[in-house]
Amino acid sequence: MLPEDDQVELIAQVAGGGPGVLIGIGDDAAVLAGGVLVSSDMLVDGVHFDRSRLSPRQIGHRAAGANLSDLAAMGGAPTCLVASFGIPVGFHDAQELAAGLTDHGVPLAGGDLVRSPVLVVSVTVVGHADKPVRRDGGVPGDILIVSGPLGGQAASGYTLPVTPRLAEGALLAKTARAMIDISDGIATDVRRLARACGTGALIELERLPLGPGATVEQAAAGGEDYELLAAVPPHAPMPGWATVVGRLTADPQVVLLDADGRDRDDLQGHDHFR
Fold it and tell me: 143-257 is classed in which CATH architecture?
């Protein structure tokens, strides 16, 4: 089966566009006329969460947080959520699921319900940014920073609450030339950022801020931390909560350098289809 990024590229070839679509497939959110942002995510029981380990409210909270993180990566502010639930026989907690979606303080404006073999939660966020930060604006020499600790989700078994970095994204948008949220692990998402920018990248693994109980490998490849990875000019002001982890390079290669000077090219983030 083709990897996720390859499938996205094939879909983009037939997706089409229109005068109201300024940025389509290929970034964290679509950008429409007037700075309107739209992004969607789907979570499936047994793939993205385990109902035996998370309550319906926690599942809803996680689904909305993952979706809002895409908006944070564009430097945007949310307006509302729209959600669709695939509900299996015997599931009676749709209200709690919806309550979890609204726990981030963003209203749920509508959606759809269908019967499904397993629980499915599909969320779309609508928001706005005056100057959305794309993935493709970085240049060689830009510093790569992350907004917070990595690997904590993997260390916890993916049970920690998801906190979308909306405030951090809005602040980074003032200086960042490119930004992406770390949904699939920095080992994967830095490659996406560098490819969009037409550059390479160097990540110094020993600089990664580690979440509770996390190893360097979990921080690099565990995924679902939903922190932000931004490329900023070398002399840009640095927020106190940001950590410098590397830089964009003119060499097209992406290098994950460990403390012994080795390239850990064996580290790969999450891909549903691999």
Answer: Alpha-Beta Complex (3.90)
HSE-CB of 61 using CA atoms within 13 angstroms: 15
Domain definitions of the chain by residue range: 4-128, 143-257
- CATH class in words for 4-128: alpha beta
Q: What is the pLDDT along the chain (274 residues), one digit of tens a residue?
A: 888 888 988 988 898 888 899 999 989 999 999 999 999 999 999 988 999 999 999 999 999 999 999 999 999 999 999 999 999 999 999 999 999 999 999 999 999 999 999 999 999 999 999 999 999 999 999 999 999 999 999 999 999 999 999 999 999 999 999 999 999 999 999 999 999 999 999 999 999 999 999 999 999 999 999 999 999 999 999 999 999 999 999 999 999 999 989 999 888 877 666 6
Quote the pTM value.
0.94
* Positive or negative torsion for Cα 179, 239, 170, 57: positive
- Distance between CA atoms of residues 144 and 178, nearest Å: 9
